[in-house]
Design a protein that fits this description.
single chain; mainly alpha; 8 helices; rod-shaped
Length: 237
């Protein structure tokens, strides 16, 4: 009769295993579940953000392609919705107008020259704006790396706690057969699976979005360098 009751108490499905697990295991699983939900939320958030940045870049480049002159490009770019490229464009021309008051007008036209020191300052201003836009695009990406690093450790913690409970149960019952050890070991391994399930998507998403941030920064730097060349070609530098 005692053997039948013990057999009935043994979980037969993963859900039963989770429901009958120890409080420590449930806490680890709950924290891992929160990490997993947060990871997927950040993945969706960053995917939407980079998709929007891609559309903004396409519209901005299309506008520049239609405008061979800096004056026309500036007018067209300022009519577009706010974007990192538009802010970089405006920051560069605004700083130039501060260096050469009255030389460049609001429409982007002008005529003048900068000293080597002023030109270097202009490049530094453009670089600072690039860094600002890069940091905005990279916001929360680091959390994906944190989740990917911490989740397996949480799973390992749950595994250790589960194995400890299993050995404690063995010492109390005085039985070391497979039927007595298996439930505790299975409970311990559940946390390992949960930790890996939370970590794998987070790490993959981090690598993907880190690459997107690098590409985005390269595009901004390319436009900043092109803007300096464009200004030089039209006699502003």
């Amino acid at each position: 009769m005692i053997l039948l009751q013990a057999a009935a108490a043994v979980p037969t499905t993963p859900l039963e295993l989770v429901l009958t697990s120890s409080p420590e295991t449930k806490v680890v699983l709950a924290v891992t579940a929160v990490f997993s939900v947060a990871s997927w939320f950040l993945i969706g958030l960053k995917w939407i953000q980079f998709r929007r940045l891609g559309r903004q870049a396409d519209r901005f480049n299309a506008e520049l392609a239609r405008s061979p002159k800096l004056q026309e490009a500036y007018r067209g770019a300022m009519k577009l919705p706010p974007s990192p490229f538009g802010r970089l464009f405006r920051e560069g021309l605004n700083f130039y107008s501060q260096l050469q008051p009255g030389v460049i007008r609001e429409d982007g036209t002008g005529h003048g020259a900068l000293s080597p020191t002023q030109l270097e300052a202009l490049k530094m201003v453009l670089g600072k704006q690039v860094a600002t836009e890069r940091d905005a695009a990279a916001r929360y990406v680091g959390w994906l790396a944190t989740i990917g690093a911490v989740s397996p450790l949480l799973g390992l913690l749950g595994t250790v706690l589960g194995v400890m409970d299993a050995f404690i149960g063995i010492s109390r019952s005085g039985s070391g057969n497979l039927a007595a050890v298996a439930p505790g070991v299975a409970e311990a391994l559940v946390t390992t699976v949960a930790g890996l399930a939370a970590a794998i998507p987070a790490v993959m998403a981090y690598n993907y979005f880190a690459g997107k941030v690098g590409d985005f920064e390269s595009q901004l730097e390319g436009f900043g360098n092109g803007l300096v060349g464009w200004m030089a070609r039209e006699g502003l530098l």
